[in-house]
Amino acid sequence: MSAALDALGSHIVSSQPGAALSHAVRHGELTIKATSAGIVSLLTFLRDDQRCRFTTFIDLCGVDYPEREKRFDVVYHLLSMPLNHRVRIKVETEEQAPVPSVCSLFPCADWFEREAFDMYGIVFSGHPDLRRILTDYGFQGFPLRKDFPLSGHVEVRYDAEQQRVVYEPVKLTQAFRSFDFLSPWEGMTLPPGDEKAKEQ
């Protein structure tokens, strides 16, 4: 299987020199490293070429590497049901550099691209309706970035007096998080059935 995937990867890279940079087979999976500018051409080739026939778009997701110059990877997963092959395509992109949308090739990529935009801030040029899909209107930041604070920037609650949803800056009460594990806790009792612990 690995030899067949390696041959398929070589075929893809040699057929798409401006779009596909390299290929690798690891753990029985084929991965193609591609350029952002050539992603539409590459996915068109993968869909239409008779040796590939990757006609099923499985997934698109983002990956954040904040220490890299090109911070994000956009990862595409395709399936060829006639040939029973899968391929992963990785595209590196910068924070402000848009990646061409593939909605014209695979309409189901629409919501996947919106999710990557919503969670990571990755922009897809040519997308028909690029707006947030999971977070609320007015949400600030991108929750799956590594530098996003765990508590977020704002909290949402319903105010009964104003009879509406209120957005407020996050306020963390830290007292309940301060534990002193070296001193015994007052009022702590043994659980039932653990009377032997007293003898030790």
Written description of the protein model:
By secondary structure, the protein is α/β, with parallel strands linked by helices. It has a domain of 132 residues: Beta Polymerase, domain 2 (2-Layer Sandwich), CATH 3.30.460.80. It is built from 3 helices and 9 strands; from the N terminus they run H-E-E-H-E-E-E-E-H-E-E-E. The strands form 3 sheets. The chain has a 5-stranded mixed beta sheet with strand order 1-2-5-4-3. A two-stranded parallel ribbon has the order 6-7. The longest helix is centred in the N-terminal third of the chain and has 14 residues. The radius of gyration is 25 Å and the shape is elongated. It starts with a helix and ends in a 31-residue tail after the last strand.
Structure described in brief:
With 200 residues, this protein is α/β, with parallel strands linked by helices. It is 18% helix and 28% strand.
Backbone shape: elongated
Strand content: 25-35%
Task: Count every beta strand, where a strand is a DSSP E run of 2 or more residues.
Answer: 9
The named CATH superfamily of the domain at 2-133: NADH:ubiquinone oxidoreductase Nqo5 subunit
Name of the CATH first level of the domain at 2-133 = Alpha Beta
- The total of helices stands at 3
Q: Calculate the mean pLDDT score and round it.
A: 88
Note the run of SSEs as H and E.
Answer: HEEHEEEEHEEE
CATH topology of the domain at 2-133: Beta Polymerase, domain 2
Over the alpha carbons, how many angstroms does the gyration radius reach?
A: 25 Å
Low-confidence stretches: none
SS class:
alpha/beta
Q: Order of strands across the widest beta sheet?
A: 1-2-5-4-3
Helix % is 10-25%
For the largest beta-sheet, the strand count, sense and barrel status come to: 5 strands, mixed
CATH architecture label of the domain at 2-133: 2-Layer Sandwich
The first-to-last residue Cα distance is 61 Å
